[in-house]
Specification:
This protein is an alpha/beta fold. It has a single domain (4-231), classed as Undecaprenyl pyrophosphate synthetase. The protein is 43% helix and 15% strand. It contains 8 helices and 6 strands. The chain has helices at residues 22-28, 33-54, 73-96, 112-124, 141-157, 168-174, 220-231, 241-244, and strands at residues 14-18, 58-65, 99-104, 131-139, 185-188, 207-210. Strands 3-4-2-1-5-6 form a 6-stranded parallel β-sheet, sandwiched between helices. Helix 4 (112-124) links the parallel strand 3 (99-104) and strand 4 (131-139). It is globular, with a radius of gyration of 19 Å. Bound molecules: 3-methylbut-3-enyl trihydrogen diphosphate (IPE) (2 copies) and magnesium ion. One 3-methylbut-3-enyl trihydrogen diphosphate (IPE) is lined by residues 19-24, 64, 68, 79, 190, 215.
Length: 245
């Protein structure tokens, strides 16, 4: 088992996680999918506390995708209710650990109650500066890129921006993630090896890590193992290995 002590000082600044496998976890135990989601919130706590402990500055969790709206109505309702209760319950953990809450996605699409609770916790934690925890809610990378292109087009149309000045920084400034650095490490649980419309632009040079563990079983030690694996890699960013040393 990998523990904190096995890690060196090369901690990724921004870790993003596709929290997958709640449904299969429940099915394996003969339980309703909702129970899987409930237990998924325990894993969120593990990931958040573990990240803060080792000095990760930005943790981004994929909690609900634009495509997840197509799930059965009852499951969507359960997930939204869980969001509200988890926010109510975990605000203490955020304050105690000096963690700021942030959200990305089409928040307008969330039920009023969930949106209100979310914005309240964001407001109440806005001066915390140990780590930024971003929840991706009703988030889809393509939707984000469409919104970005629309906003930039409007600026060009209104002569606020000239097309030749559009560069990476301008695009970054229009994304939901405008206040976040690029992702260094992307983790996906449950054995699936796909991106599912998550942060397409922002993971351009992220290291990818896939684990068979189902999300409700994810523990701090699983996070540390992913970080350990990350630390064994060489990020070359197009250069040669010799150039780096
Ligand atoms: C992840 O678990 C939670 C959400 C996508 C909201 P799933 O619900 O996708 O679990 P599986 O993939 O069916 O096991
Ligand atoms: C991705 O998981 C979205 C979240 C984890 C919130 P899904 O379970 O919805 O992904 P696909 O549809 O199987 O790719
Ligand atoms: Mg899934």
């Amino acid at each position: 088992m990998i523990d904190k002590e096995h890690l060196n000082s090369n901690i990724p600044e921004h870790v993003a996680i596709i929290m997958d496998g709640n449904g299969r976890w429940a099915k394996k135990k003969g339980l309703f999918r909702a129970v899987g989601h409930e237990n998924g919130t325990k894993a969120v706590k593990q990931a958040v506390e573990g990240s803060a402990e080792i000095g990760i500055k930005y943790l981004t969790l994929y909690a609900f995708s634009t495509e997840n709206w197509n799930r059965p109505k009852l499951e969507v309702e359960t997930l939204m209710k869980l969001l509200v209760s988890a926010l109510k319950k975990e605000i203490k953990t955020l304050q105690k650990n000096n963690i700021r809450l942030n959200a990305i996605g089409n928040l307008e699409a969330l039920p009023e109650k969930a949106r209100k609770e979310l914005l309240e916790v964001i407001e109440n934690t806005k001066t915390n500066d140990r780590m930024t925890l971003t929840l991706a809610l009703s988030y889809g990378s393509r939707e984000e890129l469409i919104k970005t292109i629309q906003e930039i087009s409007n600026k060009v149309k209104n002569n606020v921006l000239s097309p030749h000045l559009i560069n990476e920084a301008v695009i970054n400034k229009h994304l939901y993630t405008k206040n976040l650095p690029d992702v260094d490490l992307l983790i996906r649980t449950s054995g699936e090896q796909r991106i599912s419309n998550f942060l397409l632009w922002q993971i351009a040079y992220a290291e990818l890590y896939f684990t068979e563990i189902l999300w409700p079983d994810f523990k701090k030690s699983d996070l540390f193992e992913a970080i350990y694996n990350y630390q064994q890699r060489e990020r070359r960013f197009g250069k040669t290995s010799e150039q780096l040393s």
